[in-house]
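Usage

Read records sequentially. Each one opens with the input sequence:
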Amino acid sequence: MPRKNAKKANSGENAGQEFFAAIAQIEKEKGIPAGYMMEKITQALASAYKRDHEGAGDNIEVKANPETGEVRMFILKDIVESVDNPATEISLEEARSAIPHAELGDVVRIEVKPRNFGRIAAQTARQVIIQGIREAERGMVYDEFSSKEHEILTGVVTRIDPRNGAASLRISSSSEYTDAFLAPGEQVRGETIHEGDRLKVYVVEVRRSTRGPQVLLSRTHPGLVKRLFELEIPEIYDGTVEVKSIAREAGSRTKIAVWSAEPNVDPIGACVGPGGARVNSIVEELHGEKVDIIKYSEDPAQYVAASLSPADVLSVDLLPDGKSCRVVVPDDQLSLAIGKEGQNARLAAKLTGFKIDIKPASDPGELPDPEEDLLVVDDGDEPAEELLEEPVGEAPEESSNDIQV
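and closes with the structure output:
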């Protein structure tokens, strides 16, 4: 019999140490700070007490001492003549039975043993602690992935919605991982995705939600091309070569304007690499998407002429509004300058920020109206295409060399 009582006493002595050991284990395995866990446990004990004692408020105090392994809970009660709320008040007579020198208006601390809580109260405390752990985990995941906005991550396709083709990916960063969403509109047209495929994706945005962080991905964003160039080309990563502008129609063609402040550095050559190795690896990752690498120029005429690569340009006339120009090309280069369904001219306009009116050398015509918002093509077949505008950066004047891959 004494042996049995000794075990009970030993169990009580070790309970506090086991409590702090559990918190340390959670911190080690999940990275949740011990201070945060103590805060949540305090909230849990308070919620459990309130569940069993109607009228209790914020008069609950929890004292935890990691050095001694003690965790004690106290209820603070005001000493009054007439008790209206037993959960927060105590009579003078009852207080003096424990503390002889107690006076009206004093506050006494009454220790409460958590093991005396009822079953439902204990379940309430457990749910508060579990919810606190989940919130901490979601917060760490959000912090990790929000720092990866506008970066490239590699994800594994876990599910494809058969109704609309939307894909769910499991992405990871450092030691954190989460499920992310690749919408049908952010997938490259013609690109087939299967469950289990590994994809490089661009993180467009990270949002908070009740179910944890929501990570929005894209395979069509121009930023994906820029990050791929940074990964493959050290000169872009270290800033020797700068990406000035990108225009992309995902799955078909991309135009990228590059420039270098170093006079001895050829930005196009740096991007292409020996034997085209660097740019070919990017094209392979983009599943064969064509990439035009163009040297940026501060001279708008040279820049526009280079942007229409691979077509040759005879002249570029800038209009007074500063946002439009007329380009004259050889007759046999007209279709090449415009591109299939106007794609080449459309991408050139997006890249440079200029509205471009392309004319053949045999019929250059009048200068177009600067207020006109459409690309006018005089070949009798191609429809007019509305062009998008993007701001053009500035840099020292360069020649309009270009390369198509």
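Summary fields computed downstream for this record:
- The domain at 148-218 is CATH 2.40.50.140 (OB fold (Dihydrolipoamide Acetyltransferase, E2P)).
- The first helix runs from residue 2 to 30.
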